[in-house]
Structure formats: C-alpha cells, structure tokens
C-alpha cells in the first residue's frame, strides 16, 4: 500500500510539478489543460451503464463483451484507448451464484474512461485494505448483503488491466428499453459495491 | 518459463525489491492458480526505474483463496502478476 490518498496533498504536489515543467519549458499550460480535457472528455459512469444495458438486451454482445471487452466496446461507440496506451478491459459478470467487486490495493487504478473519476472511498486505505480481506463485511456496510452461498471474487487491478462489473439485470424490467435500463445502473453497481 | 495455462499453480516470489514493484505484499510467497493470460506488457518495475527498453512479459490473472492469504474467509482474490513475479509450483508440492 502506498499510503493515504487524500486529494489535497497530492493536488498540491501535482501543481508544483506542473509549475516546474512549465518553467523548464517542457510543456505549456495550454498543452497540459488540453491533455487533461482530452482524457476526461466523456469520462462518465453513463458509459459503463450503456455497456451494461446493451449486454442485458443483446445476448451476442454480452458474450463478446465477456470474451474480449476491448474488441466489443466499439459496438457501443467506446474504447479503452483514451490514455497513454490502450488498456485491457476485463468485464466480470455477476450471476445468481457469483458476485464480483473491484479494487486497486496498490494505488487507485480504475476504468476512468468508462466510469469517470473514482469516488474518494475507492482510494481510501480503509476500502483498499479491507475489501480484499473481508469483502462480505465491506459490502454489507455499503448495504449489499450477499447470501452465504454466493461466491465472492475480489479483483485487485495491480497491472495494466482495468475491470468493470456486469451487474445482474433486476427482476421486473422485461419491458424496459435500453436507455431505461441504462438509467438503472449506478457507479457502485459497476464497481461491485451495489447490486445494480 | 513457457506459457502458463489456466488452472496451473504458481508461487509468488517472496522478495522485497528496493524499487517500485506491482507485487502486493499480501500475496508474496503465496500459492495461487492461473486464471488467464492477459497478453504481454512492459514490466512496471523497469518502467519505473527508467530502463530504456523495459522487458515485455506475459501478465497473468492469478487467483488466491482467502483462507490461504488471511487464514479465514471463503472468497477469492485475483491479482495481476507479471511472469517474473511468479514461479511454477511442482505437482507434489503443497
């Protein structure tokens, strides 16, 4: 673990680094702003929700998504190529008997392009250290009580892959359109700390 | 080391390197099971050290039983590990 990820000291350090780079003529202020804007352009949990809704209504897409998410994303107009290099995306599917939850114990790796900036608790030492050790207790604190016979897998993003949870489609949604289904999906559902 | 296949058992190297590494402490020395290969990526340790041409190695998803890691729990934890972080476990080894 690399210490507490509270945002204020990091933000100050990043700002000092930016100033040094600009002073040294390595990059310009406008270049930096443009790079940041490009990275965050369209980065929102709406993207993850669209992926999930499509998987719920299109069995073929669901199968392709679970098999090779990077190859399937262009079908919904998305990709993992927004950063320095294209990251690998792995989608893990919740079922009646299996539940998945995502963490990065070393730092705060997260599929920003599909989920937007991560919530502060995702970067907290408490979440990062506890969810790998006692996920059922942590999920219960989020309000998600899992049956004892549901198998729990915690995915620690320690290398170049990013993870996304495909939640179970809620009962009673048979008549809903794809956009209506997407509106049901929450950021927490995509991380695995909520059912949907 | 040849390509590792799903289901093969591997042990995570126990060393504590001086520089940056992506081996979480809680799996060092532990035995896990290969879930899948993620393709090949530049070794993070060498990238962080500024090596001009860092080694490119297979990265594997490796699953560990909570009971092995923590002495309790019925869940699994998967960790993404570069090839040089792990070594095959002999079949007769426990």
From TrEMBL, chain A:
Superkingdom to which the source organism belongs: Bacteria
One Pfam family cited in the UniProt record for this chain: NHase_alpha
Database matches in InterPro entries: CN_Hdrase_a/SCN_Hdrase_g_sf (IPR036648), CN_Hdrtase_a/SCN_Hdrlase_g (IPR004232)
Gene3D superfamilies: Nitrile hydratase alpha /Thiocyanate hydrolase gamma
Residues of the Nitrile hydratase alpha/Thiocyanate hydrolase gamma domain: 10-194
Keyword entries, A-Z: Metal-binding
GO-annotated molecular function: catalytic activity; transition metal ion binding
Record protein name field: Nitrile hydratase subunit alpha
Organism annotation: Streptomyces inhibens
UniProtKB/TrEMBL annotation, chain B:
Boundaries of every Nitrile hydratase beta subunit domain copy: 5-88
Gene3D superfamilies noted in UniProt: 2.30.30.50
Superkingdom in the source lineage: Bacteria
InterPro entries according to UniProt: CN_hydtase_beta_dom_C, Elect_transpt_acc-like_dom_sf
Protein name: Nitrile hydratase subunit beta
Record organism: Streptomyces inhibens
């Amino acid at each position: 673990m690399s210490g507490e990820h509270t945002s204020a000291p990091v933000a100050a350090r990043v700002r000092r680094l930016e100033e040094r780079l600009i002073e040294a003529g390595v990059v310009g202020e406008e270049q930096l702003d443009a790079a940041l804007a490009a990275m965050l352009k369209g980065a929102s949990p709406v993207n993850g929700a669209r992926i999930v809704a499509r998987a719920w209504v299109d069995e073929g897409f669901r199968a392709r998504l679970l098999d090779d998410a990077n190859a399937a994303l262009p079908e919904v107009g998305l990709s993992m190529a927004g950063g320095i290099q294209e990251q690998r995306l792995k989608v893990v599917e919740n079922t009646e008997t299996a539940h998945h939850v995502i963490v990065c114990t070393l730092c705060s790796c997260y599929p920003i392009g599909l989920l937007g900036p991560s919530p502060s608790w995702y970067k907290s030492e408490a979440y990062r250290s506890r969810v790998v050790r006692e996920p059922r207790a942590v999920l219960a604190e989020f309000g998600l009580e899992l049956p004892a016979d549901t198998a729990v897998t915690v995915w620690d993003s320690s290398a170049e892959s990013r993870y996304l949870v495909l939640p179970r489609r809620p009962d009673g949604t048979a008549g809903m359109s794809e956009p209506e289904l997407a509106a049901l999906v929450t950021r927490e559902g995509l991380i695995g700390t909520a059912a949907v | 080391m040849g390509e590792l296949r799903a289901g093969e058992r591997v042990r995570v190297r126990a060393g504590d390197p001086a520089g940056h590494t992506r081996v979480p402490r809680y799996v060092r020395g532990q035995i896990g099971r290969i879930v899948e290969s993620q393709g090949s990526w530049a070794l993070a340790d060498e990238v962080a050290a500024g090596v001009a041409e860092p080694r490119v190695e297979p990265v594997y998803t490796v699953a560990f039983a909570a009971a092995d890691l923590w002495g309790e729990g019925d869940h699994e934890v998967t960790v993404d590990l570069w090839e040089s972080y792990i070594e095959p476990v002999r079949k007769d080894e426990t």
